[in-house]
Amino acid sequence: MRVLIAEDDAATRELIERGLREELFRVDTAGDATSAEARAVERAYDVIVLDVQLPDHDGFAVCRRLRTRGIDTPILLLTGRGGVKDRVRGLDAGADDYLAKPFAFEELVARLRAVTRRGRTRHLETVLSYGPVELDPRVRTVTVEGQPVLTSHTEFRLLECLMRRAEQTISRDELFERVWDRDSNGSNVIDVYVSYLRKKLGPAGAMLRTVRRGGYVLTKGFAPQ
Questions:
Q1: Most CB within 10 Å of its CB: which of 22, 38, 165, 169?
Q2: Which residues pair with 171 in a beta bridge?
Q3: Is the pLDDT of residue 87 over 90?
Q4: Can you say whether residue 219 is alpha, beta or left, with left for phi > 0 and alpha for psi between -120 and 50 degrees?
């Protein structure tokens, strides 16, 4: 499981990172809101631990911006302010859970596992649309120009990932990690599923472009080189 920790206090950040690595989490860290948001957009995480009191922007604003940008990763807010109003504010901003400081490390781990078991946030369960393709995460359907397209579970997850990041190049490794939940280790299975998707989407499959040096992008224009 890959987790992003956004915490400005170095001692707290290092303590959480060390503990989660011992629990076999794969951990990336950020010390400010700008870096955290950039990391969350650039690569796939299973969960984000987001401190509310970051030096450049508060965690509530970061959470709202990530949801607006289509990032559906579960978010756990950390804060020294444990009042009801702050908890409500965090949940209204799109967070999935809220943990007040100080906290027991065991509770943090339990909450992280709980939010990932519940799946991606429900705040973004709206129909995704790009060109003639529409994908509905709620009922797991895909249509092209209004005509239904039957996809396997893996094909659906791959297409959803590409549509949520349309116009952005996604590396093979990141797609493999997000769709298959493991490292690629040089596997060519992703190429096979991309081929399946292109065929099933018909003419719209031409939007699924291969990017030189090992990535893919869903675009109506030219693929980046």
A1: 165
A2: 215
A3: no
A4: beta
* Residue whose tokens read 């009191």: 53
Ranges 57-61, 66-70, 215-219, most confident:
215-219
- Residue 225: Cβ-neighbour burial (10 angstroms; 0-12, 13-18, 19+): exposed
Q: What is the rounded CA–CA span in Å between residue 156 and residue 153?
A: 5
Q: Across all residues in the chain, what is the average pLDDT?
A: 85
> CB atoms < 10 A from the CB of 101, how many?
14
Dist CA 164 CA 188 (whole Å):
23
Q: What single letter denotes the amino acid at residue 132?
A: P
Would you say the pTM of this structure is higher than 0.70?
no
The domains of the chain, with CATH numbers, are 2-123 (3.40.50.2300), 125-218 (1.10.10.10)
- Rounded CA-CA distance 165/144 in Å is 18
User: What pLDDT is stored for residue 187 in this prediction?
Assistant: 65
Convert 67-127 into a string of H (helix), E (strand) and C (coil): HHCCCCCCEEEEECCCCHHHHHHHHHCCCCEEEECCCCHHHHHHHHHHHHHCCCCHHHCCC
